[in-house]
Every structure is written in C-alpha cells, then in structure tokens.
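sry for the spam today, last one i promise. struct tokens for design, 832 residues
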C-alpha cells in the first residue's frame, strides 16, 4: 500500500521581499505559521496584524498581497523503498515555487487546482527533509500574464483578478473587502508509492429503468521504475462488484457495475437521499491493493429543460427523476475571506440555515471557490441541488496561453472531483461575463482583445461533455440560450434582475415573468450585534466612518435610503434606520418570490442573492457575516414554504395565489376578509379549494376596503396568511405602541408573549441588542389587532423588567413611522 504522510501543521513564515509600505521589522523575520492557512491569519495569530474585519483595519494590510512570502517546515516521511516519492499540494494560493532540501521541484500558478511534484531526486529517505514554498506577488503575476496575452482585460473594480487563477473576490467586491491572500490553503502531504496509482477516477452514474449503472473510468499512472505488471481494477457499489484486467503498460481502464432496483436520490421535499458506498481498488494479481478510491454515489436522472414553449420562450426548468421542480434557491459566496476558517461544522450550520429556510438549491457563485468535499457531501445528505459556476465572474478573461491551459487543467480536475456528487445538477460557464460584455462599460476598453468567449462556448463545454457527460452545461448566468439574443433577455433562459435594486422600487419585480431568475436581491445592514462588534463608531450613524467602510456597494447607502423613501418617512434614529432597512430587505424578497412562485410553471425558479456573507457588512445576504439570521431570513422561510398564500395584482384586479409545492393535494378552506387596523371586521368570503400537488391555483379577491388607510385585506388558508395594504406606509394610519408584552424565564432563555392592541406591522424582537448571542425563533411578521404571539429567545442573559423597552429592541414599523412623523411635525411647528 502507498504511504501518505501529512506535512506538519506548524511551519515557519517569513517575508522575504516586502512591498513599499510593508512593516520593515517583518523583513526576514521568522513567524510561526499554521498550514492549512494563509499569511493574514498567521500574522493575526502572531499579533502582527489587526483584524481586518474591524473598523477600517482592512485599509492597512494591502501590502500583504504585494509582498513575497516564504513558508518552510521539516518532515521525515516513511518511504520504505517506494519507487515514487511525490509531494502533493492540494491547494497553493497562488504564485508558488516549491523546493525540497533547497532544490526547486516545481511551480504552481492556480489556487483552484492541486499540484503533484516528483521529489525522488531531492528526497533524503530516513532523514529530515526541508520543504519550502515561496509565494510571489499575485499583482506581478497578473502583469506578467497580461504581457503574454496582449494586455489587461477590463472588469468592474479595477482589479486584475481576471488575469490570475485565484479567488476573484479576494480583490474586493460590492460586498467584500480587498484581502489578497497568499499561503498553503489546503492540505499538503508526501505520497510514497510503487507500481501504479489511480491518477483519476470518473464515475458516470446513470439510471436504466429501475436499475442503476455506474461506469467507472480511470486514468492510471505507472511508477515507471520496474517492468510494467498486470493489474486488476475492482469496483464495488453497495453489494455489487465488477473486475477487469489492466494489461501491462496500460494507462487506463473502465469498469461498469449494474445495481438492480436502486433507490433514487431526490432533492429535499421530493423524496429521500439514499447514497451508495463506492470503492475502486487497483490490485496486483495476488490481491495486494496498490491504490484505492472511495466515495458515496447517488442515482438520479437530472436534466434542465431548455426547450421552446408555445409562446416562443426558452424554458429553464430543472427536472429530477421526471419531476419538474420550482427551484427555491440561494446564491453562495465563500463563507469567509480566509477559507481555512470555514470548518465542517460551519459548513453544516450554514447549509442547515438554508434548509431551515426551505431552500432546495444552492448556486456556488463564480467569483469564489470550488468548495471543499465537505460542502458537497453535506448537500448530498441534505438534499440540496447544487448549481456550480466555473470560476469566472464579471470581467473579460483572456483565451490565449498560458491562461487557457491553466483553465483546462483546472476544469478537468474540478469536474472529475465533483462529478460523484448526486447533488450537482448544473455546470455554468461564468457569472455575468457575457451579459457584462453586452451591456456594461468595462474599466479597460477591450478593443480587439479576447474576452473569454471561446472558454465558455468551446473549452468548458467540451471538458464537461468528455468528463461528465450526464450533466447539463450552460454558458453563463444570465444566458438566453442563444448568441442571437441578449444574454439577459427576460423571455429566455435565466435572468438577473438588478435594475430594481439599482434604481427602482422592489414592487417592480412584478413586471418580470421570466423562465428563471438566478439572481435578484435587496441590501440591508447586518444584525445590530454584528454591526456593533465590527464598528466602534461613536456615535454610530448610517453615515459614520465605520458603517460607511462596511458598505462596499457603490452608492449602497444611498440605495438603502432611496429604497426606504418609496415606503417610509425618513427615519429619525440609527435604530429606526437599522430596523426599516432590514424590513425593506425582507419585504423585497417576499414580493419577488411570491410573484414568481405564483407564475409557476411559466417561471421555474428563483435564486436569491445571497445566502451568506464573508465578513460583517451591509449586503444582500440573509445570514450576516457572524452567521446570524437577518429578518429577511425569516421572510425567506415563509416565502419558500411548500405551501404559500399571496395576494397578487392582476389586470382584472387583485388575485389570491395558492401555491402547493408539496407532494399531496391541498384541500383547504380559504377565507378572505377586510379588517381594520383596530380589529373591526369588514366583508368576509370563504371558499373550499383544492390545489393539486406541485401546482398553483389563482382566484379573484372579492372583498374591498372601505378605508384604504386603516384597513387591510387578509387571505388565509390552513394557517398560511397573506396581507394586502392598498397604500404605502407613509399614508397608513398606524397606531403607535401597538404591542403589549411580557416575558417568562424558561430553561434556555425566555418566552416573550406579545399581544397586539392594533395592527402591528413587521415586528422584530432585536434580542441581540440585549445579548449579542441571543437567538429568536421568528421575526418580520405582522399581527392583527387582538392576536397573541409567543416568541422563544435563547439567551444566557438575565432580563430586567424594562428590557423590551430599550431603544430598538421590540421594534415595529408602526413605531418607526409614527416617530418619524412626530419629528417631522415638530420640525414644521418650530419652523412655523
């Protein structure tokens, strides 16, 4: 058997050539380092770098990405006369030169793929060996590549991320800081082996009627020292096995295993997620295993229906095991700027937050990373469909050498690595590059330079077709399905809806009925405790320096205020601004999702931008940079529920849409009524309705308001409720202080009892303003007069009688609006 010897986790780090603004005292100074890790985390651990997530510390660390760094360690590896000794680095970030005992053994220029170096000639068996990795400036590498490919290409941020194969958002984004990392960010080990090894294993998994078929395709590398020998390739899937002979000198073999009566894998909500153990072993004729490979596979049939419908529109519908799926999705970005801090437990927490919000699809966005196997394993287990972007985003990319070869090698490796996962359902060529070329003004004119078209239309689809032939490849997001149409054509394929956030009210989502929406969203600040941990401004205001620094979108805070102005008077405190901007995000997602779900099957999915954040920032995320759920998360949970009631404007008037995405028919009594904010009941209607499984039923609203400023239309079925307000908040006659409250201590916190004296709109108990670690079980809901609601709060803090009266803790739109009105009236009186 081969020997795998992990290199020690403790290394020595030194800066061997600092940028012009690098601290002089760090030059050639030895610092303890941790591998996997990066320079930033090592410097922080050594007390040489302030946390760049706090205040404006980010601005004082840009020298790190422009300096040259050196990692070294010593290892004694068991080799036992192995024919080959390889040093295997699973991830080097990014421009790396590797040496063993002062002999350079190879280089790497791609963060997104592994490197294997033959170190036989440099290795000292049975002795200490020094392994060192030098990381040069990625900025200089970008300039070097630009010279080779005709010049730099443009993008939206003036950063050269598109010239190097590195996590693009390291260079900053409209939600992320500029933290250009360097380091050994994945495990590194010594692999001593003889005879042969499995260079790659590619399981092509299909379903034939009730049976499963696994075709294992392998590449085999021979040690090349002794004469070639005959080998056996053995594949076992569950209890079923197949074997083939690998002839001497042969560098590959295929084996097919048939598994009768397989249980199919389904996304959550559509069935179970059975997984089958698969073992591939390479053996000598006497049964000695020289190499092996183990994964868990799932059997399912997946296609993306991109046919033309009877209106001439290009569909975009996921079909799993013959079932069309309305995809309830979220976009995923790297969960930390320093990926080694994302542990398996953190992956599980974040993906469980998606599951708990009724999400069934995760899109891994193209400006980040191909995530760890842990991420995809969890998606397999949890029943989350995965849409995987190749890592190209929002820029023009070169197509020439040496860039093209790096892209091809990267694509072959990642497709091979991820194809065993049944959760993976789509390969997508890039994020917004085709649309950007069509519509945006790049910061560097493109002229006659290549922009990446041959990567997305030729190279990547060819790799997918060869390596992973059962999955769909899609050119870009957004993409209309044809080069003859605009990439973001609202009637074809998948679209991104960003004109709304960038300049219009979120009610404009209702103007779109596309086949699929793969990006849309609305910003809000992080939760109060997250904001206060990251920003020490005193006083804290929407315009204070730290808050402004943690808003990376161009015009972002202006957009937040513009979005408020469509609905609310100007808030008169930071607490009200914080509450109302978070509520606006929750409302925006609700309006978009409810509208598009009501269009099923004309619209077949939505992917919210975005699930998570990589640091504490104002952004489109529903889970903030400290992993805390914003009010919008709770709105998402309601909007993505299997069953949904919404009220939609239509040409003939208001309609009620009953969405049933569950597996059973929904037989329900639907009540619709008009109710005053004070609780008085107007007209009421009731209907018995059957909504078949996986369908939508629409019917007219038959009640009307007699006073549009103090009444609301309510549609309710089986505990699912929709509200329709005919006026904006600025015109509504809200009662101030609409809630009475009390709380009782329970084992892990408190039960908070809320009773509405009048309609209480968009209630949020911001318990983290009392205890940063407090967790509340619901938020962003509206209560009708006379209703009682119990919230459960997990907290270790002891509350005082006045706790809920603290500024901004128990918040409603009623109070924010009436306070703003009162201040405006006082100002008018003073001026008068």
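last one done:
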């Amino acid at each position: 058997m081969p020997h795998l010897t992990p290199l020690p986790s403790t290394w020595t780090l030194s800066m061997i050539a600092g940028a012009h603004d690098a601290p002089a005292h760090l030059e050639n100074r030895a610092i303890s380092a941790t591998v996997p890790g990066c320079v930033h985390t090592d410097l922080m651990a050594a007390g040489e770098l302030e946390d760049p997530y706090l205040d404006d510390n980010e601005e004082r660390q840009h020298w790190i990405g422009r300096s040259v760094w050196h990692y070294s360690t010593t290892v004694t590896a068991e080799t036992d006369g192995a024919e080959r000794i390889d040093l295997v680095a699973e991830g080097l970030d990014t421009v790396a030169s590797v040496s063993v005992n002062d002999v350079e053994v190879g280089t790497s220029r791609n963060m997104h793929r592994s490197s294997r170096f033959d170190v036989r000639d440099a290795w000292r068996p049975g002795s200490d060996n020094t392994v060192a990795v030098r990381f040069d400036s990625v900025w200089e590498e970008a300039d070097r590549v630009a010279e080779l490919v005709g010049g730099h290409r443009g993008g939206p941020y003036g950063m050269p991320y598109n010239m190097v194969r590195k996590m693009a958002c390291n260079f900053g984004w409209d939600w992320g800081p500029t933290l250009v990392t360097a380091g050994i960010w994945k495990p590194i080990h010594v692999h001593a082996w003889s005879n042969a090894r499995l260079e790659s294993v590619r399981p092509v998994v299909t379903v034939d009627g009730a049976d499963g078929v696994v075709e294992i395709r392998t590449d085999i590398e021979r040690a090349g020292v002794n004469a070639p020998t005959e080998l056996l390739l053995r594949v076992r899937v569950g209890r079923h096995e197949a074997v083939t002979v690998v002839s001497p000198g042969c560098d590959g073999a295929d084996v097919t295993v048939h598994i009768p009566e397989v249980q199919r894998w389904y996304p959550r909500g559509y069935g179970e997620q059975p997984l089958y153990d698969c073992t591939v072993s390479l053996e000598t004729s006497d049964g000695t295993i020289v190499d092996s490979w183990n994964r868990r596979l799932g059997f399912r049939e997946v296609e993306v229906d991109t046919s033309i419908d009877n209106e001439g529109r290009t569909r975009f519908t996921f079909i799993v095991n013959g079932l069309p799926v309305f995809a309830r999705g979220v976009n995923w970005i790297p969960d930390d700027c320093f990926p080694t801090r994302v542990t398996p437990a953190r992956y599980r927490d974040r993906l469980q937050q998606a599951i708990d919000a009724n999400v069934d699809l995760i899109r891994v966005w193209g400006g980040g990373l191909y995530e760890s196997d842990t991420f995809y394993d969890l998606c397999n287990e949890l029943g989350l469909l995965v849409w995987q972007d190749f890592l190209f985003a929002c820029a023009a990319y070169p197509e020439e050498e040496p860039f093209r070869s790096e892209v091809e090698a990267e694509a072959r490796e990642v497709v091979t690595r991820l194809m065993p996962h049944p959760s993976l359902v789509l390969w997508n060529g890039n994020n917004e590059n085709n649309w950007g070329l069509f519509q945006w003004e790049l910061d560097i004119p493109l002229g006659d330079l290549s922009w990446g078209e041959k990567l997305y239309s030729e190279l990547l689809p060819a790799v997918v077709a060869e390596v992973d032939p059962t999955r769909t490849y899609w050119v870009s997001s957004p993409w209309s399905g044809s080069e003859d149409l605009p990439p973001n054509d609202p009637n074809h394929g998948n679209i991104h809806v960003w004109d709304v956030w960038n300049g219009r009210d979120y009610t404009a989502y209702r103007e779109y009925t596309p086949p699929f929406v793969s990006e849309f969203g609305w910003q809000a600040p992080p939760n109060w405790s997250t904001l206060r941990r990251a920003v020490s401004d005193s006083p804290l205001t929407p315009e204070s320096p730290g808050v402004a620094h943690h808003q990376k979108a161009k015009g972002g805070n202006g957009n937040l205020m513009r979005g408020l102005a469509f609905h609310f008077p100007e808030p008169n405190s930071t607490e009200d601004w914080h509450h109302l901007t978070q509520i606006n995000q929750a409302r925006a997602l609700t309006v978009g999702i409810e509208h598009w779900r009501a269009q099923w099957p004309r619209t077949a999915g939505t992917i919210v931008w975005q699930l998570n954040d990589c640091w504490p920032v104002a952004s489109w995320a529903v889970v903030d940079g400290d992993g805390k759920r914003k009010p919008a998360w709770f709105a998402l949970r309601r909007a993505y529920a299997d069953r949904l009631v919404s009220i939609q404007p239509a040409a003939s008037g208001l309609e009620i849409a009953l969405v049933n995405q569950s597996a059973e028919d929904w037989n329900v009594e639907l009540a619709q009524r008009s109710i005053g904010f004070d609780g008085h009941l107007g007209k009421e209607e009731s209907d018995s309705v059957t909504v078949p499984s996986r369908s939508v039923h629409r019917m007219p609203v038959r009640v009307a308001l007699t006073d549009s400023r103090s009444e609301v239309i309510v549609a309710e079925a089986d505990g699912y409720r929709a509200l329709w307000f005919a006026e904006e908040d600025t015109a509504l006659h809200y009662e101030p202080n609409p809630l009475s409250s009390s709380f009782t201590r329970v084992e892990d916190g408190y039960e908070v009892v809320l009773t509405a004296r009048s309609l209480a709109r968009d209630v949020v108990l911001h318990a983290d303003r009392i205890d940063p670690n407090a967790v509340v079980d619901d938020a962003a809901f509206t209560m009708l007069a006379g209703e009682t609601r119990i919230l459960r709060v997990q907290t270790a803090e002891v509350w005082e009688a006045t706790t809920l009266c603290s500024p901004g803790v128990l918040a409603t739109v009623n109070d924010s609006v009436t306070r703003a009105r009162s201040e405006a009236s006082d100002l008018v009186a003073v001026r008068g």
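The mean pLDDT is 95. ok im logging off now
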